[in-house]
Amino acid sequence: MNATYNFPELNGSHKQIAWAEDIRNGAVKMAESDVKTAEEGFASGYSLDDAKVVLAEVIDTFMAVDSAKMIIDHKASFTRFRLDEMLMMEHGHKAISKARAARK
Question: What is the pTM of this model?
Answer without folding.
Answer: 0.82
